[in-house]
Queue: 2 jobs
Job 1
Amino acid sequence: MIPLSVLDLAPIVEGGDAATSFRNSLDLARHAERLGYRRFWLAEHHNIPSVASAATSVLIAHVAGGTSTIRVGAGGIMLPNHSPLVIAEQFGTLASLFPGRIDLGLGRAPGSDQVTARALRRSPEAADSFPQDVLELMAYFRPAEPEQGVRAIPGAGLDVPIWILGSSLFGAQLAAAFGLPFAFASHFAPTMLEQALDLYRSRFQPSEQLERPYTMLGVNVFAAESESEARRLFTSLQQAFINLRRGRPGPLKPPAEDFDASLAPFERVMLADMLSFSVVGTREQVRAGLAGIVAHTGADELMVASQIYDHAARLESYTRAAEAAEISVGVGVTR
């Protein structure tokens, strides 16, 4: 099986708070490191009651400081919300503190709604300059030139691998043109996956960072002792998506009994489409599900997202996923 990594949103559960979420994220990262997961990524979102990873760079430092070998990074930083120089300085600082362990995934979505985007002082046109901003950011990580007027200090000359994140053909095309690894958000937006992978692989241009295409796909995994228990755990994520679409976002809710019966037919269809890259069941079912995704897509790596209400059950799910994929302790230091 190919390498597995972890995507964490530092979930705030119903009845919990951000401080508990941060402790749980570090505990999960240490758990993933022991199990042999390759990366532990955190995502930038704003004004979402169930997500505590808004100050992504700060949380990356917290997690990297509490672990020793697993790669820690952003999946991702929404670059239009920031100046490239500031992100270069932040990740230059992280790479200086934790050499050889920091990844920087970049996205062009706001990670929020339009009202929040305005509060972030984000221009509606900010995403239009995303390709130029990525190039500017990459330039800050190169060794500084003698006549260079603006430098990232720290940042210049440091090895910070950059990824392009996406859920459309735009990200695939950009990653291919720049010769960067490509991570696709198939765990919640799988519609364009096959077209995006074909485009990325067919148009890929080798770069100093990467000789050949490299793809990582997001997949929701809910693993438990029984299929019925795994499906019960899965209802927390399903509730989150339904409540978001109904305009009633909130903390991550506990599992709900007979949740499917409460859904309108169009909501069932929506969940089936958005969450089609979800593997739910026992260790053996997860093994078959992950293997099927790899065989169908040719992915080089899978990033596991498990929005599970109970922290102990979340740890157990990641354990069963690691056993299903037969990953071994030690791969966490691999780039």
Job 2
Amino acid sequence: MRIATYTKDQQRHVGVVSDDALTVQALLDIPPGTTEQGILGLIQAFADPARLATLSRAAAEPLDSVKLLAPVPRPRRNIFCVGRNYHAHAKELSGSVFKANNADPAAWPIVFTKVPETVIAHGEDVILPVGITEQIDYEAELAIVIGKGGKNISKAEAMNHVWGYTIVNDVTARDVQMRHQQWDLGKSFDTFCPMGPWLITADAFDATDTRVRCWVNDELRQDGQTRDLIFDLPTLIETCSRGITLYPGDIIATGTPAGVGMGFNPPRYLKSGDRVRIQIDGIGTLENTFR
């Protein structure tokens, strides 16, 4: 089931997107105030997404007649992000400025965060921080959305904690990322995490074997398979929950395939007017323009 957060006539809704992605039906019979948090409110009200099938729905309306918001317009806290988690991507960066880091990329997942203010929706503009950075990069990623919270979650139980999945673009200011050594500042400028176009529930999607692609101005740059992850999804959930409580609605971005701008020689960073389109088979397409 594809679930979207959107506005219609200045009212916020959460609804079910049709399989052909042409229509949406608002969910009814949900607790008051749920929709103000988008799908985060829905997750908190319905820990088991299967329960959504029992809810009544409004009449279908054309998807192009509503304004899509990010599935979780305002995450409850920072987004967990994983770096260098595809074999080919780790290799393409091994000769870059990352070569100074001699750590084995397969030893432990690299985890950093992006602040909630980074999140924007499909179709919204990513704002370039003029005068602060000149090396803006794209990173197409599958994101896990947690449904059942917990701490010290085992790999064996990890997938039982997943509510669904969405697409994110982990936009990065490479020069700022390198300047500060820690990555959070270079990853956390306002608008630096496009998310969407909607969320797909875990029971309707095989995240372990899907294709992640990214185009810049219609040029295919990234093309990877989640089966090529260095650390699989259960390992990422286990790692992020080691001594840290995960809550319903927490988001874990799982890493990006090879083909980022930094990986080219010379690098191919984004400029104003560039369009970045990300497609994950089985979910949909996320597209944003950089201004």
